[in-house]
Every structure is written in structure tokens, then in C-alpha cells.
């Protein structure tokens, strides 16, 4: 073996140079440094059978964002005298092969708490340890180490935001210099027989046949993320007074929140650096406080990461001890109408179009469509909506997506199932003219404003003039919100009562019985209603 230290920096998330402790460690006292990204064909290769363009795991917008982030990382590495080595294959097998072939004695990568990475990392670490390769896996994706918080809490994750904050206190690095500039990196060593690629284009990956009439305005990469952060910070008043859930979900030319989530997801932006920048703005000015402040949003992120790590089966209803067991329906017909923006409610459909085209929607827009699909109107299982978001969001994040779906479906964290978002009046409050709807659903662009949120109420003459006949050019409503939401409340009430009676230990059999009872009651109520109507018309 050649003398000196041979380090491999394995990029997965943390696609950045700034505040990247794994990269700093890998470059320190190394004779050669191999910066590697492995393209997993299962994540990137086209899947023509999927419901939207993209691979079997990710929609096209997120794949594009990732490729842009990799190109940006490659050019930053080149400026430092290095480059990104792109390999293709099974990530664990590929990394193990590189460790062997390049005689690596130090492997560095950012710690990742997602189940996918936990099992991947276990395999790679086990090989490294048997081969005498030093591993360095710092926690730098989140503000805190979620494992430490769970330990502090006696081995269980805190289940409320307030208890999380109390345990977390201040991050240890709060006033340290995180962003130590790297002026150069060690050279890349000989790559032997390993096949190295440039960062591929979408077309090179085989994604050539998709045509979108409107692309996402959000470009991937650390440079873009830092630029966006700089823009956000330049409006110090806005940062200091930020309060969520205030803010207009229908604002799309200039979104009402930072849209830094995709950059945080891929680690193009360090959440710790973002935190320090917000704190700098807060110095000496009056500012909002958690949970509603901008800093408070980052704490929500860490809260969900911690609960997700400490909760077995966090991404499922079954076997998840913090999740209420609810007899959701499995209706694919309703799911597809929601997913394909065909519910007949323009506010809901416009949001679903924005999600598909842009891969990002405002937080309250996420609330509206998630509530509508689950406990608000359609009573479809939250896991199905979660899967759609997981595919289409650029910022799709395992802990945050599951955590928020649990929240919105009143399965965990939040239990006021009587509070339902109206698919008509909620959006109207922010955007009475329906500009958001007109943009994302151009079929309704000429609908007069008094009908834009409820086009089925428009007289036929108005529909004809607007060139939009309901039931022909735009779908009829899949459900009537008034009766559907009443029905959902009743079902949630009965499901909650069952969970309480059985102390959460609800079996599959109990759920099947409850589902049957609810259906029988529904049919009896329908029959009574029908006979009353008939009597009245006699
Ligand atoms: P800002 O308001 O500017 O907040 C700054 C950052 O704080 C965000 O980028 C994000 O990292 C964090 N943050 C903000 N709100 C939350 C929250 N409620 N929970 C956790 N972290 C938060 N966010 C994701 O990043 N990925 C997801 O897959 C995801 N899925 C969601 C699914 C549903 C059903 C809902 C209701 C919310 C989901 N969110 C998710 C949370 C939130 O909607 C987004 O983080 C936020 O809208 C992103 O926009 P922003 O960057 O402008 O947020």
C-alpha cells in the first residue's frame, strides 16, 4: 500500500462545501481524497409504469434537482483542485469496492437517521471495521443529535414540540465558527479500474420523453441555496417578524415562506448555518419566537427527525405506537381523483397541479390537500397521500413527510379532528379573485370570480361563456364537502373512542368490525333520509 492517508468522502446528502464536517475531516492530512457520489439506478432510472415522469422512487423534478446539485458540487470541488467522482451501482457494494480498490484508510460521510441509510451504513461500516478503515460520520444534517435527545429523555423521543425544546436547549456549536472556508483540497488519487462518470443529464439517464408545460422554478445546488438564503436574510424585518402559520398559501410568484426546504433536504444548505444566520438577524432586534418564528421552523424539523428516529414503524399506521388506528378506506378511485387534480374543487386541484409541476407547495396548501384526502373529505389512508408527496415533492423528506401526514390526518401529534379546512372558503380568504386557481387550472381562467371556488354553482350560461362546462371540461365534485366532512367527523369520533377503549391496542379485526359498523350505520342513515324525502314529495 502506498504511504500517506487515502480518504474517501461519500456524498449522499450534505451536497455542499460549507459547514461540512465530514468533508473537512476527509481533507485533513490526506495525501489523496476521493469525493464520491453513487448513482443508485433504483433511484434514478426511468420507470414508465409510475404515475408521473421519473423513476420508481422519485418524480422528475426531484431527480433534476439532485443532478443540478451534483453539477454544482462538482464545479465547487473543481475550484478547490478536486472533482466529483460519479459511480453507478448498488451504493454499499460500490463503496466497498472503492475502499478495496483505492486502498482507502479513512471513510467519511454525514450521519443519516433515515431507515434506508441506517441499514446501508451498517453494511458499509461493518466492512470498514473488518478491513481496518477508520470511519467518521458526524451529525450535521440536523441542529441536534437526535440520538442524544432520545437518550436524555430516558430512551424515548419527546412527543411534543415544547418538551423537545426543553430537552434540546441550545446547540453546542451555537457560537462556533461553522463555516471555515476550505481553500484547497487534496488531489484525487488513481481510480484504477473503477468506471467514473461525469454528472449525467436527465437525458443520459434515459428520461427523454417527458414534456412539462411548466417546469419547477427551483434550481438545485449549494450556490443556488446560498443565494436564496442571502435574499431571505437581506429582508431583516421579514426574518425577524416571520410567523407561521400566517402567510398566504396562494402566493406563487413570490412564495410566502423561504422555499429553502429542497436545499435543506439535500443538504445543499446546512441547517446549522441557516440557524446561525437567523440568530445574527435576531441580535438586538425584537423578533418572533418558536414555534411560529423562522428559527422555530428549523426546530420543527429537528423535532420530527427525533420522533421519527425513536419510533418504530414511524411511516406506518400498523405497529406504530404513536399512531391512532383508524379504519381509512382504500379507495383508489378517490385517491387517483385527488392525485390527478380531478376532485372538482378548484382550490384542491390547483394545489395538486402546482405540486406536480413545481414539486413544492406552501405549508398551508399541504395542510389543505392532506386534510381533504384523509379526515376532511375522502377518508383515504394517509399512507397513500404520503406516497404521492414522497414522489412529487422536491423537498420530500422521510421524517418530515411522515410526521406531517401523521399530524394532518389526526393520527398523531394533533387530535382536533373537528377542525377541517374548507376546500372552498379557506383559499378564498387569501385570494378572492382566484388568481392562483386561474394560473394552475387554466381551464377555469375565464370563470367569474363569484364561481371560481364553486364552479358547479355557475348557471349553464355562465359556464358556456367561460368555455368551461362542469362535468365536461372540468370535473364534477367527487363528494359534497358538507356531507362528506360530517361523515368523516363521525368516523373519526368512533375510531377515537375505539382507540381509547382499547388503550391504543386496536387489532386488524377490531378495525374491520368498526369499518363494517360504520358502513351499516351509513346505509341505515341513507335509507332513512331517502324515505323522508319520498314522504315529503308524496
Ligand atoms: P419555511 O417556512 O421557510 O421554513 C424553513 C424550514 O423549516 C423549512 O425549509 C423546513 O426545513 C422547516 N420546516 C418548516 N415547517 C416545517 C414543518 N411543519 N415540519 C418540519 N419542518 C418544517 N417539509 C419537508 O421539508 N419535506 C417534506 O417531505 C414535507 N412534507 C410535508 C407534508 C405535509 C402533509 C405537510 C403538512 C408538511 C410537510 N412539510 C415537509 C413541512 C413544511 O410544509 C415544509 O417544510 C415547508 O412548507 C417548506 O417550505 P419553506 O422552506 O418555505 O418553509
Automatic annotation (TrEMBL):
<dbReference type="GO" id="GO:0032922">
    <property type="term" value="P:circadian regulation of gene expression"/>
</dbReference>
<dbReference type="InterPro" id="IPR036134">
    <property type="entry name" value="Crypto/Photolyase_FAD-like_sf"/>
</dbReference>
<dbReference type="GO" id="GO:0006139">
    <property type="term" value="P:nucleobase-containing compound metabolic process"/>
</dbReference>
<dbReference type="InterPro" id="IPR036155">
    <property type="entry name" value="Crypto/Photolyase_N_sf"/>
</dbReference>
<keyword id="KW-0547">Nucleotide-binding</keyword>
<dbReference type="GO" id="GO:0071949">
    <property type="term" value="F:FAD binding"/>
</dbReference>
<dbReference type="Pfam" id="PF00875">
    <property type="entry name" value="DNA_photolyase"/>
</dbReference>
<feature type="domain" description="Photolyase/cryptochrome alpha/beta">
    <location>
        <begin position="5"/>
        <end position="143"/>
    </location>
</feature>
<keyword id="KW-0285">Flavoprotein</keyword>
<comment type="similarity">
    <text>Belongs to the DNA photolyase class-1 family.</text>
</comment>
<dbReference type="GO" id="GO:0003904">
    <property type="term" value="F:deoxyribodipyrimidine photo-lyase activity"/>
</dbReference>
<dbReference type="InterPro" id="IPR002081">
    <property type="entry name" value="Cryptochrome/DNA_photolyase_1"/>
</dbReference>
<dbReference type="InterPro" id="IPR005101">
    <property type="entry name" value="Cryptochr/Photolyase_FAD-bd"/>
</dbReference>
<dbReference type="GO" id="GO:0003677">
    <property type="term" value="F:DNA binding"/>
</dbReference>
<dbReference type="GO" id="GO:0005737">
    <property type="term" value="C:cytoplasm"/>
</dbReference>
<dbReference type="GO" id="GO:0003914">
    <property type="term" value="F:DNA (6-4) photolyase activity"/>
</dbReference>
<dbReference type="InterPro" id="IPR014729">
    <property type="entry name" value="Rossmann-like_a/b/a_fold"/>
</dbReference>
<feature type="binding site">
    <location>
        <begin position="257"/>
        <end position="261"/>
    </location>
    <ligand>
        <name>FAD</name>
    </ligand>
</feature>
<dbReference type="GO" id="GO:0005634">
    <property type="term" value="C:nucleus"/>
</dbReference>
<feature type="coiled-coil region">
    <location>
        <begin position="508"/>
        <end position="535"/>
    </location>
</feature>
<dbReference type="GO" id="GO:0043153">
    <property type="term" value="P:entrainment of circadian clock by photoperiod"/>
</dbReference>
<feature type="site" description="Electron transfer via tryptophanyl radical">
    <location>
        <position position="382"/>
    </location>
</feature>
<keyword id="KW-0274">FAD</keyword>
<feature type="site" description="Electron transfer via tryptophanyl radical">
    <location>
        <position position="405"/>
    </location>
</feature>
<feature type="binding site">
    <location>
        <begin position="297"/>
        <end position="304"/>
    </location>
    <ligand>
        <name>FAD</name>
    </ligand>
</feature>
<feature type="site" description="Electron transfer via tryptophanyl radical">
    <location>
        <position position="328"/>
    </location>
</feature>
<protein>
    <recommendedName>
        <fullName>(6-4)DNA photolyase</fullName>
        <ecNumber>4.1.99.13</ecNumber>
    </recommendedName>
</protein>
<dbReference type="Pfam" id="PF03441">
    <property type="entry name" value="FAD_binding_7"/>
</dbReference>
<feature type="binding site">
    <location>
        <begin position="395"/>
        <end position="397"/>
    </location>
    <ligand>
        <name>FAD</name>
    </ligand>
</feature>
<keyword id="KW-0175">Coiled coil</keyword>
<dbReference type="InterPro" id="IPR006050">
    <property type="entry name" value="DNA_photolyase_N"/>
</dbReference>
Amino acid at each position: 500500500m502506498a504511504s500517506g492517508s487515502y480518504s474517501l468522502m461519500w456524498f449522499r446528502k450534505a451536497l455542499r462545501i460549507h459547514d461540512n464536517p465530514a468533508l473537512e475531516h476527509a481533507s485533513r492530512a490526506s495525501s489523496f481524497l476521493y469525493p464520491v457520489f453513487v448513482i443508485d439506478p433504483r433511484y434514478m432510472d426511468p420507470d414508465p409504469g409510475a404515475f408521473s415522469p421519473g423513476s420508481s422512487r422519485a418524480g422528475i423534478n426531484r431527480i433534476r434537482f439532485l443532478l443540478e446539485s451534483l453539477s454544482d458540487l462538482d464545479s465547487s470541488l473543481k475550484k478547490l483542485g478536486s472533482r466529483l467522482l460519479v459511480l453507478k451501482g448498488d451504493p454499499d457494494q460500490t463503496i466497498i469496492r472503492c475502499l478495496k480498490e483505492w486502498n482507502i484508510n479513512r471513510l467519511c460521510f454525514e450521519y443519516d437517521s433515515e431507515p434506508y441509510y441506517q441499514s446501508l451504513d451498517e453494511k458499509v461500516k461493518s466492512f470498514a471495521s473488518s478491513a481496518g478503515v477508520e470511519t467518521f460520520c458526524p451529525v450535521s444534517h440536523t441542529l441536534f443529535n437526535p440520538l442524544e435527545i432520545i437518550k436524555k429523555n430516558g430512551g424515548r423521543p419527546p412527543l411534543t414540540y415544547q418538551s423537545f425544546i426543553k430537552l434540546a436547549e441550545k446547540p453546542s456549536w451555537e457560537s462556533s465558527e461553522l463555516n471555515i472556508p476550505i481553500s484547497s483540497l487534496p488531489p484525487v488519487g488513481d481510480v484504477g479500474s473503477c468506471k467514473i462518470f461525469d454528472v449525467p443529464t436527465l437525458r443520459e439517464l434515459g428520461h427523454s420523453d417527458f414534456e412539462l408545460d411548466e417546469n419547477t422554478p427551483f434550481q438545485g445546488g449549494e450556490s443556488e441555496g446560498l443565494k436564496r438564503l442571502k435574499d431571505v436574510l437581506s429582508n431583516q424585518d421579514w426574518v425577524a417578524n416571520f410567523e407561521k402559520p400566517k402567510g398566504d398559501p396562494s402566493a406563487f410568484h413570490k412564495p410566502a415562506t423561504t422555499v429553502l426546504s429542497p436545499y435543506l433536504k439535500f443538504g445543499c444548505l446546512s441547517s446549522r448555518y441557516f440557524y446561525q444566520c437567523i440568530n445574527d438577524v435576531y441580535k438586538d432586534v425584537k423578533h418572533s419566537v418558536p414555534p411560529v418564528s423562522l428559527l422555530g421552523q428549523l426546530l420543527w424539523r429537528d423535532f420530527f427527525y427525533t420522533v421519527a428516529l425513536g419510533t418504530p414503524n414511524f411511516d406506518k399506521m400498523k405497529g406504530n405506537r404513536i399512531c391512532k388506528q383508524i379504519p381509512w378506506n382504500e379507495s383508489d378511485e378517490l385517491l387517483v381523483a385527488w392525485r390527478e387534480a380531478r376532485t372538482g374543487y378548484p382550490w384542491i386541484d390547483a394545489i395538486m397541479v402546482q405540486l406536480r409541476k413545481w414539486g413544492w407547495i406552501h405549508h398551508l396548501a399541504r395542510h389543505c390537500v392532506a386534510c381533504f384526502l384523509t379526515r376532511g373529505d375522502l377518508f383515504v389512508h394517509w399512507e397513500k397521500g404520503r406516497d404521492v408527496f414522497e414522489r412529487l415533492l422536491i423537498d420530500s423528506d422521510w421524517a418530515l413527510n411522515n410526521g406531517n401526514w401523521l399530524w394532518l390526518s389526526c393520527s398523531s401529534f394533533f387530535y382536533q379532528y373537528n377542525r377541517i379546512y374548507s376546500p372552498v372558503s379557506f383559499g378564498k380568504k387569501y385570494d378572492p379573485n382566484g388568481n392562483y386557481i386561474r394560473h394552475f387550472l387554466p381551464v377555469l381562467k375565464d370563470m367569474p370570480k363569484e364561481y371560481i371556488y364553486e364552479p358547479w354553482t355557475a348557471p349553464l350560461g355562465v359556464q358556456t361563456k367561460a368555455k368551461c362546462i362542469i362535468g365536461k371540461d372540468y370535473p364534477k365534485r367527487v363528494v359534497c364537502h358538507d356531507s362528506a366532512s360530517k361523515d368523516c367527523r363521525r368516523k373519526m369520533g368512533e375510531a377515537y373512542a375505539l382507540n381509547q377503549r382499547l388503550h391504543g391496542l386496536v387489532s386488524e379485526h377490531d378495525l374491520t368490525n368498526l369499518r363494517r359498523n360504520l358502513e351499516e350505520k351509513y346505509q341505515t342513515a341513507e335509507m332513512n333520509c331517502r324515505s323522508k324525502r319520498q314522504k315529503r314529495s308524496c
